[in-house]
Write a structure and sequence with these properties.
Layout: H1 5-10, H2 12-45, H3 50-77, H4 88-105, H5 111-133, H6 135-139, H7 145-168, H8 174-195, H9 214-217, H10 224-244, H11 247-254, H12 262-291, H13 294-307, H14 310-314, H15 318-345, H16 353-381, H17 385-401
Helix pairs in contact: 2-3, 2-5, 2-7, 2-8, 3-5, 3-16, 4-5, 4-8, 7-12, 7-15, 10-16, 10-17, 11-12, 12-15, 13-15, 13-17
Subcellular location: Cell membrane
Protein name: MFS transporter
Transmembrane segments: 12-31, 51-69, 90-108, 114-136, 148-170, 176-195, 226-250, 262-284, 296-315, 321-347, 359-380, 386-406
């Protein structure tokens, strides 16, 4: 077991501030590069097949992200003799490798090379992410996990807005944009490894384990509480992303916003939802610490996030979409903040925290991979966007209540 020595030496406010910065630049790269720069580069190379090519690049790179997160976590878990600490080598190494992939992408000019570059970038970024995420169970006391989760939730929201807005300035110079985002991640990594204390050998118990097998790799899913949290997160993410992936088409074809105004409408929805989520995250994370009631927050906020989709389902208007953005943004922000706290409290093994957090990340990345395909099938075969809303509501409700059987968390 790794004691939280880093918290005592750093101070929790300092640790969470730096950790938030490291996460914010990570999400900025994910959203700025993956959400705008890659798509713009693909459209410039092959305008006729841009939709199919974007889908291919997004799908294949998501597989790399899903696989390399738990791999990166396992590697950092088993780094027990480094004088730099357990997580630091993989945080700074993953960041530098990600910068190298951004340099590669700044030089490519074909779809296959973009596919290779962004897939490698996802792999390296997830090594960075796995080690960074493990800092919470490593160094944050259990009674302050809700506060830590709130910080990570705000970092996600801030990074999303920052990445999207910064990327707009580099659409005309995509190569420079890649290098800016990659450099920002390296800067975030340097802040983490230089301003916080990663426990060194002698400051934690070294547990010698045999080389892991595939069975060991997925062993956490045999633990009942971990499995229910995994299932709940997967269903919530799937229900959230099914309509999200088609927001542009929803505002055009379902709400009736003119085509030339639809992109700005999507931007408005994103900003409203994100700001609403930040407010809820800041409130609900620390409040769950004070009340020591995690499951209540996750279940209620998950149910509200699901029911918010009734607004555009029953009233397909622009006003309803804005109300939906406010309500679901707040509910999903609260859900995400407290869900991270629950995740850190149901880890089967403290020694394998990064690996198991990586396994849980599959519940994030996997649904995002399959959401576009499921949503497209529903829209095309089961009655259009109204059916999509209904399916997303049902799936989200399943995710919201899946945490109720968890016994190890109140």
């Amino acid at each position: 077991m790794v004691p939280a020595t880093g918290v005592r030496r750093d101070g929790l406010p300092k640790l969470l501030t730096v950790l938030g910065a490291g996460n914010a630049v990570m999400y900025a790269l994910y959203m700025g590069v993956g959400g705008l720069l890659v798509q713009s580069q693909i459209a410039a190379i092959d305008p006729a097949d841009k939709v199919a090519n974007v889908g291919l690049v997004a799908g294949v790179s998501a597989i790399f992200a899903t696989v390399f997160n738990p791999i990166g976590g396992t590697l950092s878990d088993r780094t027990t003799r480094s004088r730099w600490g357990r997580r630091n080598p993989w945080i700074i190494g993953g960041a530098l490798a990600a910068l190298a992939t951004m340099l590669l992408m700044s030089q490519v000019s074909t779809i296959p090379m973009i596919l290779l570059g962004w897939s490698l970038a996802q792999a390296m970024m997830n090594i960075y992410q796995a080690a960074l995420t493990a800092i919470v169970p490593d160094r944050v006391p259990e009674e302050r996990r809700g506060t830590a989760s709130a910080v990570l939730g705000v970092a996600l929201s801030f990074g999303t807005i920052l990445g999207t807005q910064v990327a707009v300035f580099f659409v005309a110079d995509i190569s420079l944009g890649y290098l800016v985002f990659g450099s920002a991640v390296v800067l975030g990594a340097l802040l983490v490894v230089t301003l916080t204390h990663d426990p060194r050998p002698g400051e934690y118990e070294v547990v010698v384990k045999p080389r892991p097998s595939i069975t060991d790799f997925l062993s956490a899913l045999r633990h009942r509480d971990f499995m229910w949290v995994f299932l709940g997160r997967a269903m919530m993410i799937l229900g959230y992303f099914m309509p999200l992936m088609f927001t542009l088409f929803i505002v055009q074809d379902y709400i009736g916003i003119p085509k030339d105004q639809a992109p700005q409408a999507v931007a408005t929805i994103t900003i409203v939802s994100t700001l609403s989520g930040i407010v809820a995250t800041v409130i609900c994370g620390p409040l769950s610490d004070r009340l020591d009631r995690r499951k209540l927050f996750v279940t209620v906020s998950g149910v509200v996030a699901a029911l918010a989709m009734l607004l555009p389902l029953l009233w397909p208007t622009w006003t309803a979409m804005l109300l939906f953005a406010v309500v679901q943004g707040a509910a999903f922000g609260a859900y995400s903040a407290v869900d991270i706290a629950i995740v850190t409290l149901v880890l089967p093994s403290k020694e394998d925290a990064a690996r198991d957090m990586g396994i849980l990340n599959i519940a994030n990345a996997g649904p995002q991979m399959i959401a576009p395909f499921i949503a497209a099938a529903i829209i095309g075969s089961l009655g259009g966007y109204a059916s999509l809303w209904v399916a997303a509501i049902v799936i989200s409700l399943v995710g919201a209540v899946a945490v109720l059987p968890v016994k190890g968390v109140r």
